[in-house]
Design brief:
The complex is a heterodimer. Chain A is of the alpha/beta class. Chain A has three domains: 13-19 and 28-49 and 181-293, 3-Layer(aba) Sandwich (Aconitase, Domain 2), CATH 3.40.1060.10; 54-179, Aconitase, domain 3; 299-449, Aconitase, domain 3, CATH 3.30.499. Chain A is built from 16 helices and 18 strands. Chain A has helices at 13-16, 32-40, 67-77, 100-116, 127-133, 165-174, 199-210, 225-228, 232-240, 256-264, 325-328, 331-341, 359-367, 370-376, 427-436, 442-449, and strands at residues 51-55, 58-62, 87-91, 119-122, 142-145, 159-162, 176-180, 184-190, 219-223, 249-251, 285-290, 297-299, 307-309, 320-324, 351-355, 380-381, 402-405, 421-425. In chain A, the strands form four sheets. A seven-stranded mixed sheet of chain A has the order 13-12-18-17-14-15-16, with helices on both faces. Chain A has a five-stranded parallel sheet with strand order 4-3-2-5-6, with helices on both faces. In chain A, strands 10-9-8-11 form a four-stranded parallel sheet. In chain A, helix 7 links the parallel strand 8 (184-190) and strand 9. Chain A is globular, with a radius of gyration of 21 Å. By secondary structure, chain B is an alpha/beta fold. Chain B has two domains: 5-136, Aconitase, domain 4, CATH 3.20.19.10; 137-167, no CATH class. Chain B has helices at residues 14-17, 27-31, 42-45, 66-73, 86-94, 139-146, 150-166, and strands spanning 5-7, 51-54, 78-81, 99-101, 114-117, 122-125, 130-133. Chain B starts with a strand and ends with a helix. The chains are: A alpha/beta, B alpha/beta. Chains A and B meet through helix 3, helix 4 and helix 6 of A and helix 1, helix 5 and helix 7 of B.
């Protein structure tokens, strides 16, 4: 377990029944989540537990839960899109279309994009990475996505959550969605992460500590000095895996790092300072952890909640090391993995597979020599898509295969055969394990080569 | 009545309900794989009106609504669990599949004869002659379920809007 200071400062919102705190201007102090939802619901304030109808600023769909599922419903309703300019379609689940059915679904997706005249990113990468990369997100937006890892968008100070296809069809037809205003669980990481420890390790540790339903379908907001120094894509790993904690959304208040990323993506950021939790806003819970005491983690099959420090995990032999997914194959993830793989090769019995999360990230990694590191290591490079993580295509884990993966989920049978075993780790830990041939602590390799990422 | 309970554990995830490798095909094909990794006999032996009873966090994982749709396709009367994952819960109600929360499931065993009464928020264990109390659904969701789910409800709303415009 993580050694940490752990405090629960404020108990259950409704149970305490305390009077709402007032901010300096006399308006009820609100969390970041409340502020965004209040604006989207056309109200000055909302309280946790209120059921409100909110207008969405953007709806993101992909090829699996998107056109093939929503079009029959729209037809049945006799409805068009509420606003085609607020719909973004991204193909990622069935890319590269390596099965007959997958190829047909992709073709349907492309035709639909033309007919419905929506923005379409085809084969450019995984939706959660492409969406901000292409400048579709900015602080304060209220966004729904047709995928469970949609909380990723919260790294940019947007309230973004995942819905199923029928609910998405309703959003596409009306531009509205109901939700119960969530309470906020504030998770603060003080101090700094040590060399060899990544955002992924934070999330695996939190899964073990709080459980797969620790987020209680409420909002999680991350803060603290360890979060403030993280690059945007590392922050995205935190909000992405809010899904694994069972939260509706994961949020990080925007700061200069956010604004710099967004400006580079061509976004007119506008007023962003307003989008943070007010001092004194009521919280469901406030957890405080010491980042400096966190070790690299691995989660044993078949749950992210099985996480423990890699230093205490058995040196389990592995067959496949997988660096992929929106959680674990963004540019930052590739960069970190390459620090270990540079000049090294995977152990003879290990197959290294890399599926960069977006074409943009792969191009950037190539320009910086990172892709060359993977090629020199003999890695098999897959398409910029969900790949083995979703288990949709021909690339799947075979019977009894043991894999260490930088992805978010290791549920039984998700990435292939029910007999396959998936361990989860950071891209650094996956790279270290690939070289060692068994689950290994990345810090040993970093120390050996004298280079911290 | 011969409806039975399938008793499952905690953290039943969406990959178990609707595995990714079967997601490209239709619902009938997907149904054959439902819960295959944890309960291989389920898809072949479940009968219309049967009830799933589970522990915490039922439906965790993906937003794929086929996880709920496939249960409806197999005729499952509803799912009773200690807690549900949020997206699954919304999907189930949107598709008209009752999902009910029970604090105490101590009386329930696998294979019990049972009947789910959504209106009265009760799970009747008919053979044991016991009643498991379920948490009543919030009014908003009760209406959604009574309408048959989101699509029928939206149809009703659009029809009313069109009628108003024509008046």
């Amino acid at each position: 377990m993580v050694t940490q200071s752990f405090r629960k400062l404020i108990a259950d919102d409704e149970a305490t029944g305390a009077a709402p705190l007032l901010s300096a201007v006399g308006v009820m102090a609100q969390t970041l989540a409340q502020k965004i939802i209040a604006r989207a619901a056309g109200r000055d304030v909302v309280r946790p537990g209120d059921v409100v109808t909110a207008t969405v600023d953007l709806a993101m769909i992909h090829d699996s839960g998107g056109p093939r599922r929503v079009e029959p419903i729209l037809k049945e309703l006799g409805a068009g899109l509420f606003d085609a300019s607020r719909v973004v379609l991204i193909s990622d689940h069935f890319v590269p279309g390596d099965t007959d059915e997958g190829a047909r679904i992709l073709e349907f997706t492309r035709t639909w994009a033309r007919q419905r005249d929506v923005t379409f990113h085809d084969g450019e990468g995984i939706c959660h990475v492409v969406l901000p990369e292409r400048g579709h997100l900015r602080p304060g937006m209220f966004v729904v996505g047709g995928d469970s890892h949609s909380p990723t968008g919260g790294a940019f100070g947007a309230y973004m959550f995942g819905v199923g296809a029928t609910e998405m069809a309703g959003v596409l037809a009306t531009g509205e969605i109901w939700l119960k205003v969530p309470g906020t669980i504030l998770i603060e990481w003080r101090n700094r992460l040590c060399d060899g420890v990544m955002a992924k390790d934070i999330m695996l540790a939190l899964c073990a500590r709080l459980g797969m339903d620790g987020g209680c379908y409420q909002a999680i907001e991350y803060c603290g000095s360890a979060v403030a120094v993280l690059a945007m894509q590392e922050r995205m790993t935190l909000t992405n895996m809010a899904a694994e904690l069972g939260a509706q959304a994961g949020l990080i208040a925007p700061d200069e790092v956010t604004v710099a990323y967004l400006k580079k993506a061509g976004v007119e950021v506008g007023d962003w300072q307003h989008f943070s939790s007010d001092p004194g806003a009521k919280l469901l819970a406030h957890h405080v952890f010491d980042a400096a005491t966190l070790e690299p983690q691995v989660a044993a099959p078949h749950s992210p909640a099985n996480a423990e420090p890699v230093s205490q995990a058995p040196a389990t032999a592995i067959d496949i090391a997988y660096i992929g997914a929106c959680t674990g194959a963004k540019y930052q993830d590739l960069k970190y993995a390459a620090t270990i793989l540079r000049g090294r090769k995977p152990a003879p019995c290990v197959e290294l597979i890399v599926a960069p999360a977006s074409r943009h990230d792969q191009d950037r990694a190539a320009a910086e020599g990172i892709m060359q590191v993977f090629e020199d290591a003999g890695a098999r490079i897959l398409a910029n898509a969900c790949g083995i993580c979703a288990g949709y295509g021909n690339d799947r884990l075979g019977e009894d295969v043991t894999c260490i993966s930088s992805t978010a989920r290791n549920f039984k049978g998700r990435m292939g055969a029910a007999s396959s075993k998936v361990w989860l780790g950071s891209p650094l830990t996956v790279a270290a394990s690939a070289v060692a041939g068994h689950i290994a602590d990345p810090r040993e390799f970093l120390a050996e080569s004298g280079r911290a990422p | 009545m011969t409806n039975r309970i399938f008793l499952l554990g905690d953290d039943i995830d969406t990959d178990q309900l609707a595995p990714g490798h079967a997601m490209a095909g239709g619902l009938a094909a997907l149904a054959g794989h439902c819960l295959g990794a944890v309960r291989p006999d389920f898809a072949a032996s479940v009968k219309p009106g049967d009830v799933l009873v589970a522990g915490r966090n039922f439906g965790m994982g993906s937003s794929r609504e086929q996880a709920a749709e496939v249960l409806k396709h197999l005729g499952v009367a509803g799912v009773v669990a200690r807690t549900f994952a949020g997206i699954f819960y919304r999907n189930a109600i949107n598709l008209g599949l009752p999902v009910m929360i029970a604090k105490n499931l101590d009386d329930v065993s696998d294979g019990d004869l049972a009947e789910l009464d959504v209106v009265c928020s009760e799970l009747h264990l008919t053979e044991k002659k016991l009643v498991v109390q379920l948490e009543p659904l919030p009014e908003y969701l009760k209406r959604l379920l009574a309408d048959g789910g989101l699509v029928p409800q939206l149809k009703k709303r659009f029809a009313a809007e069109r009628a108003r415009l024509e008046d």
